[in-house]
Specification:
about 0% helix; about 160 residues; 13-stranded antiparallel sheet; about 55% strand; lipopolysaccharide transport protein A fold; mainly beta
Length: about 160
């Protein structure tokens, strides 16, 4: 098992609550995996096999995690997760076959059958993109897959269809 701790950007933040947004960029990232291949000249680190990456309250599970470094020490430009991707934060779970976090653009993109679950609510489509700094998300359709959202209203009791 390989364990590496890095300082770098967060991978998932709350979409619905701006007040809950936390700056995780200064928090260390702990990564556990079966193998690590690091390329200092190519500025990449590739973790494979049962990858678990944790930063603050965010945990990412994947078969493979690729970190692309910037020019400055510990500057992470992009993180890609592949295969059985699951991103967990509080009661939110994002799943996909591929996820990309682009720190300079402040966004996370989930593709490959992406789905977000928060409590009993779900959201799916062809691609789901989170804009971290703007606290918003976009879900796109494509490849014959529509955008689908299931929201369970709260606050009212009883059957809304009866009077």
């Amino acid at each position: 098992m390989v364990i590496l701790t890095l300082a770098g950007p967060a991978l998932l933040v709350p979409v619905a609550r701006a007040a809950a947004h936390k700056d995780r960029s200064s928090l260390p990232i702990t990564i556990k995996s079966n193998e690590l291949a690091a390329d200092n000249k190519g500025k990449t680190a590739i973790f494979t096999g049962k990858v678990v990456a944790k930063q603050g309250d965010i945990t990412i599970y994947a078969d493979r995690l690729t970190i692309n470094y910037g020019d400055k020490k510990n500057d992470v430009e992009k993180i890609e997760a592949d295969g059985n991707v699951r991103i967990v934060q509080e009661n939110r779970i994002g799943t996909a076959s591929h996820a990309v976090y682009e720190s300079k653009q402040g966004r996370i993109t989930l593709t490959g059958n992406p789905k977000i679950t928060q409590g009993s609510d779900t959201m799916s489509g062809n691609s789901i993109t989170y804009f971290i700094d703007d606290d918003r998300s976009e879900v796109s359709s494509g490849a014959g897959r529509p955008v689908e959202v299931l929201i369970h209203p709260t606050g009212k009791k009883g059957n809304a269809g009866t009077r």
